[in-house]
Amino acid sequence: MTNTPVTLEGFRGEFPRQPLNARRVAGALEAPGCQRRTALDAAGVNLDKLGSLISGEPRDRQSPFALTRGNQFEQQVVANGMAEIVALARRHLDLAIPEVRQHDLSAAAVREAYPGVTGARMNELRARLTRQRTEEMLTDPAQAYNLIRHAMTRLDFGGETVYLEQDVLAFAIDGRIHVVEIKSYPRIDGRADPTKASATVRQTAVYVLSLQQLVVEIGAPPEVVKTTTMIVLPENLSFRPTAVTIDIDMYVRRLARQLASVPRAADILDAIPAGTQLPAHPDNGADNDEVGAAATAAREALAVLPPRFTDGCVSCPLFHSCRDEAERHGSIARLGTAVAGACGDVTSIAAALDLADGRRAPASPSEAAVAAALARGAAAARIATGGLA
Amino acid sequence: MNALRTHQALQAAAERRAVTTTTRRHVHLSSSPLVVVGYHLAGDPGAPLALVWGTARDETPHCMVVPEPRNRALRFEALDEFAIDLLAYLSRFEVRDDGGTCVDAPQLVVPNAGTAEWLGGIVGRFTRNLRTDGDAPPPASVPLAGKHLSFFGDLLPGSSLMIAATDALTLHWQTGQLPSEDLNLAALLGWIDPPDGLDGPAAARLGEQAPPAGPDSDPNWDADVLADLIRSWHVAGDDPAAQAAVRGELEGEIREQLVPAWMDCWRALDQLVALPAGDHVAGRWLSDRKVWTAHSARMAEGRAFFRNIPTPVQAAGRLRFLESRTQNLQREMAWDDPLVMAALVASGEALAGRVVAVDADRQTFNANGRRQRRPMITLEPTLDFARPAGTNLYLSRHPSVKLEVLPNDASGLIRVEVLKGANQTKTLGLLPTAGDEIVLSPYGRPEFYQRSTVQEIPWTHLQLVEDSEES
Amino acid sequence: MHAEPVTPAEAAAATREQIWGTLTAGARSTLVDSPPGAGKSTLVREIGRRAHRRAQVPIVVQTNDQADDMIRGYVADQRRGAAPVRLGRLHAGDYLPPADIRTQQGLTFSKSLTDLHDCDVIVAPAAKWATVDFDHSWPFAIVDEAYQMRSDALLPIGAMMSSLLLVGDPGQLAPFTTADDTRFRGRPLSPLETAAATILTTQPETVRLALPVSWRLPSQAADLISDAFYEVPFTAGTQPHQRRLSRGIASLHRGRAADAVNTAARRGWAYVELDDVPMPPTDPDAVQAIVDVVEELISADIALEDEYGTRPLLPSDIAVGVTHRDQRDHVRTALQVARARTGMPVDEVVVDTANVLQGREFQIVVVWHPLSGRRDASQFHLDAGRLCVLLSRHRQACIVVSRGGIRDQLAGHSPTEPVWLGESAPTLDGWHAHLAVLDHLTDHAV
């Protein structure tokens, strides 16, 4: 580790990259205040690979059955010229849609029209085409395409431009753009899993915000992109689509404010000591020593980035290693947000128990308050169990 | 988080072992529970893949597998096996006492709330109304079992008819890990009952390595094992020998995945049975028996109906019932268990102390100027008590005795007066005597208000629904 | 709404006439959103007075205190010359009429409707209305605090009353349940929704109006509260110069409590920020800071000046608003100790949680910030309704006490709360409202 990172690219080094998409942007904002996660997100590090490497356990793949079912559902609802989607949009978004003129901006479709374009240039091309199509949608609604699939928009994340492949459909009717999201978790007797719905809504907000920024670039007001979005889900256990609309304005505004406070790359770099760099990922055939060495190097590189361990960390690919670290340090954060909150600025388990038992004198008002509260809890238990507890 | 629970969590982490948060057991345990674990196909809760069940820990559990979970006929064929066993198990609880109540009730034990939710809310919900007279009908046992599962899936707090092991364990123990990690039964048991030579965190790690307890299977196993087996099933075509071979292999794999969780359910029961039952557990089990009796009567008469979407009137009634059962459970646990009550003492809601004096003859004047008997108890609090004058408390030993905190007089002693329950000649005996160690809690006997019932849905709650695709 | 600019009083009167017009035109359901102190109770009483000429008018409130306050309001109206109304107060068996209204002329207390058949207006909490025989029926009734009322409590009302005026403050704390609510979420017409939301769902033709003027909040507060918490904007009913606090006694010592009181007197707001240290919920320094402010307020011999005249500030004009009951207990205890030490009647100020202060009004409110000293903001502590209640109880000034670090806490909060598709989506984001309020408070830091 001789070369000093001058950029986040330098910090990532040879470690595999995984560009940010809407899901990851939403995910990155789930761990605000965690310098470790923020730096890795900003550097576009492949978190699943990193997590597997340092914990020595493979990250769970997605089950092939879940994938198949999701794809089947999506294919079915977009089949027949979007007949099902159009019917749902007429009904739930109250849209008069005379006919569908759809346009596919997926990499595969664009590559056919523009052979030879690859990599970053492909992203730029798709983003440019998205902008053109959107402009046409707004200026010539009667003639232009009125439904775009797999659009590509840009979003500023900590000063870096992130390309977002839009999983959503964008409908343009009467100069207004409506976003439709298709998901494959079921809605049973009218109810959908609230945790999954929360993730959907936050992801959709990423798309809506980036589309709003696009229309502003074009010169239209952001309200042209409606925040009332339609989410299409399988009804009960069937493949029959059902739709529910939700106004996600609150989530879009929240996202805009959160993005504005994502640290700039330069600030993140300041916090990374010179010379810190992730190792290259060992090859498939690498022996245990090689993998072990890479894992150690990765852990050392991460060690300089302070994590913030909370209840929400279970969904992070680095969970296992951060958990071990919290446990090694005897940190109260290991016990979850509620316990940590009750312990004020005391962060060590041993210190908290010493304060509670009077083995340690409080050194601050916060410690004194924690000591009093914990001692009271312990005394109540002692009295209740006749001195046994 | 209250200070007692916080201290217990810190202790668990420091001792590297779960700490008991109760001195009593607050669930009823049946002498012959039916322990059930299962998987559905990933992303498709309506497609059961396997169930493993049994009523005796030392017997090999039954196992049903669906070699192609997306095939309706195969699904019914497999569910029939389980349904027949379930119906046979439930039929053991039909014997009534003289009052017409079943003398015992069944108890389903599952590893976690997710499995309970899946069995009742999905398997039960989508089989209970299947018609057995149409094309390719399911076996008659399947909708019957579906109705029973729907019943078990819709129980109230304090019921022990269905026990989710992780919920029951976290009611009685505090671990030193994140609350969401307690949802893993094997890891949770690692904290509570680590095998020899391991401490809690190490045992929990080991538990995490075990196959999941369901109802979601391990995605890696799906990709590496299950996908191949389902492919083999399709390759086997109509050849019975080849089919049997695939089934056999799948059952072997499933047993490897699910039997550890099934065994863990029994380990969880072992942990719980070691605690002495709280005094109110029997009363709650009696109401479980009554609920079971009513359900079983409805089943017998063909009147067991379940609504997929409750009406506003039903939902309101249900919510009120749920609220009162939730409160009752909290109250009864605190009355039964000094350590549960201690959490309230720690948070300052309850007052523990030694009785210094009792003035049973004290009289005051009420708002209408009439004399009334208001005995007064003076206590020396064991821990500071800061609730203001006017706060209502109840004797934890006799919750019918309602008290009010009087203004304090800087002596450090707390004075409370009796508002009701121990101010008449025949109830004065409920007063404590000087020297007693007592607890005054915020929990009185539940009060019942007579309410009229709304029969039909009024205009305020009638929604005009246009023909929807949901209908 | 589209008329030329008018005075606040004219605007408010026009809205009241509009509401009456809607009712007389036969609307089955009318919903009036009322910001804090916008004359909601006055409106309810006035409509009750006007409507009883056609038929007896039931008034549905949410608590016994609210019912008694409604009765007191009618009594006061009559004392000021309003047309007399025969009042009925329907109550539960164990209720004791308060001494101040027990013997009031023209007022009947009873636990049974049969005793109240000749009353013009009958006031009772929703829980009491749920116990009467549903064979009764009324053509029209008024529901007060429709945003505090749960949908299930509206069922019996709907069974007996054929048309409704619902009035409430949409910025308050929503009703809740102590039970696990997951079974009831994610469906329209959940029993946990507010009565107001239920009516909007089932009666799409509901006429929805908003009272435009807050007579309580001073002009320095109305704009902030309106922007941060309300969909329909409102204004203050008074001009800045009409409300004033003046100190009779200059502060003996320079300190933050004195600065806070002086700043609040000058600007209507003051923000006392303590060191940025995570603390347990019962932060002794925060308690002390609150006690200091209360002592300063009482020792300063403050004169209150408003549109009704000038008078001295009394301890009962002051409230301390907190989030948790144990915070309330610690503050009350500390104030009792302070009284014993100084002899000042500091323990006569009202100390309570947002839930209890909801619907009440004071001259000066000292707020213990819900996020003070926390490590992580939780949904409970971020609740927009809680913050709104705490910041909108005052007529003169509001002093907020908090640990520093709230901005970091908000920045570090991960808003991943569950979303129940199919429920009416929240329009107000507590996280955002907290940021807006913090931006404002920072300008008034002492």
Automatic annotation (TrEMBL), chain A:
<protein>
    <recommendedName>
        <fullName>PD-(D/E)XK nuclease family protein</fullName>
    </recommendedName>
</protein>
TrEMBL record, chain B:
<feature type="region of interest" description="Disordered">
    <location>
        <begin position="199"/>
        <end position="219"/>
    </location>
</feature>
<protein>
    <submittedName>
        <fullName>Uncharacterized protein</fullName>
    </submittedName>
</protein>
TrEMBL record, chain C:
<dbReference type="GO" id="GO:0043139">
    <property type="term" value="F:5'-3' DNA helicase activity"/>
</dbReference>
<dbReference type="GO" id="GO:0016787">
    <property type="term" value="F:hydrolase activity"/>
</dbReference>
<feature type="domain" description="DNA2/NAM7 helicase-like C-terminal">
    <location>
        <begin position="209"/>
        <end position="402"/>
    </location>
</feature>
<dbReference type="InterPro" id="IPR027417">
    <property type="entry name" value="P-loop_NTPase"/>
</dbReference>
<keyword id="KW-0067">ATP-binding</keyword>
<dbReference type="Pfam" id="PF13087">
    <property type="entry name" value="AAA_12"/>
</dbReference>
<dbReference type="GO" id="GO:0005524">
    <property type="term" value="F:ATP binding"/>
</dbReference>
<keyword id="KW-0378">Hydrolase</keyword>
<keyword id="KW-0347">Helicase</keyword>
<dbReference type="InterPro" id="IPR041679">
    <property type="entry name" value="DNA2/NAM7-like_C"/>
</dbReference>
<keyword id="KW-0547">Nucleotide-binding</keyword>
<dbReference type="InterPro" id="IPR050534">
    <property type="entry name" value="Coronavir_polyprotein_1ab"/>
</dbReference>
<protein>
    <submittedName>
        <fullName>ATP-binding protein</fullName>
    </submittedName>
</protein>
